[in-house]
Each structure stands twice: as C-alpha cells, then as structure tokens.
Amino acid sequence: MQRNLCREIYAGNSLQNFLCNSTVVAMQTCELLPAAELLPACEPPLAAELPPACEPPPATRPDAGRPRVLARRARLAALTVGAFLLPWCAMLGVTLPASARVPNWSIAWMGLDLAEAVAALATAVLLRRGSARAGLAAAAGAALLVADAWFDVCTSSPGLDRALAVGEAVLVELPLAAVAIWLAVTLTRGLEPARRRERG
Questions:
Q1: pLDDT in tens, 8-22
Q2: Could you read off the pLDDT of 26-76 as tens digits, one per residue?
Q3: Angstrom distance (rounded) from CA 177 to CA 120
Q4: What is the pLDDT of residues 125-143, one digit of tens each?
Q5: CA atoms within 13 A on the CB side of 39
C-alpha cells in the first residue's frame, strides 16, 4: 500500500518538474530508496517550495501600451508640423515684404515680455514646491527669450538701436535662455530613473 502511494506521489512530482522546469532531471523511483527513507521521501512538497517558474504571471494592466501609442502619435504630429513649416518658411521669405507698418506694435511686445515674466515666475514657484514640472515652465521661458532676442535684432533700426538690440540679446536674453534650457534638461534627466523604476 505504501509502495503504491509512493509511486503515485513520485509520478505527480515528476509531472510537476516536467511542466515547471526547462530541463528534466533524473527521476528517482521508490525501488531505489532504502526502506528507512521511503516514507520521508514520499511526502508531498510544500507550496512554498514550488519552483519560481510555476508562479502565475503578474496581472498586466489594460493601459500598459497607452504611453507607447501616445508617443507614436506625438512623433507623427511633430514630423508633420516640421515637414509643413520648412516649405512655409521658404514661401514667407519670397512673398513677404521687407518692411511693413504694423498696428498694435506696443501691445505685441508687451504681450511677449509678459509671457516671459509668467514663465519665469511659474518656474520659481514650481521649484519652490519641488515639482519636476518646473522644467516645462523653464523650457517655455527659454523659447520666449530666444524669440525676444531674434525679433529685437531683426526689427531694430540700423545704428544705435541695432547695437543695443544685439548687446541685449548677447548679454541678457540668450544667457538666460541657456540657463533655462540647462534647468529643463537637468529636471528631465532626474525623471528618467523614476520612470525606469516604475517600468521595472
């Protein structure tokens, strides 16, 4: 009776080893065991001793592939915009006049400088709170500063106005833009280890 029970248990263990392990080990039989070791060897294994391969896979979230889909769509949108703007710039260079009388000139410049101030204040507030979103505000401020320097130089009159515009761009606006870009890149790199830990 004990020998039959031992054979049934060893058959179940051998099937479990075959299903859970990539390699099949040599299978012992009850005939090769001494009588004193017969009963202890026939005890079924505990649940905690099962091979790791037998553990069920973790449940996958239904939205696990959503970031990849969004990134692919964003990349496609960026490529479309860039491909459209290149010939558009060439057309503007050919068709636009060299000079023009523009209404609301003061409002346009005031709005640009106000946007720069908002970006700088938002960056300071987010840094005070320790938020990584400060990188977004810093990147927006850098873009606004570069645009300000560009239009200052391009729209200034030759002579003293042009010299002042170039000096302001080189000494003030572009260095501030470089610092803002450095801050945005630093904060973005700080997020990468956290994202890797979340994915892992």
A1: 666 666 655 555 554
A2: 444 444 445 444 444 445 555 445 455 555 455 455 555 788 888 899 999
A3: 11
A4: 999 999 989 999 999 999 9
A5: 3
User: Tokens standing for 122?
Assistant: 């938002």
- Residue 10 structural domain: 2-54
Count of Cβ atoms closer than 10 Å to residue 62 Cβ:
7
**Residue 80 belongs to some domain of the structure:** no
Q: Is the pTM of this model over 0.70?
A: no
Residue 76 located in a structural domain: no
Amino acid at 68: R
- The structure tokens listed for 85 are 């703007």
CA 31-32-36 angle, to 5 degrees, is 90
Decide: 175 and 141 in contact? Cβ < 8 Å.
no
Report how far residue 176's alpha carbon sits from residue 153's, in angstroms, rounded to the nearest whole number.
17
Residue 166 makes CB contacts below 8 A (sequence gap 6+) with 153
Cβ atoms of 134 and 183 closer than 8 Å = yes
The number of domains in the chain is 2
Query: Do residues 24 and 17 make contact, with C-beta atoms less than 8 angstroms apart?
Result: yes
User: How many Cβ atoms sit within 10 Å of the Cβ of residue 199?
Assistant: 8
Residue type, 136: L
- Whether residue 86 is contained in a domain is answered as no
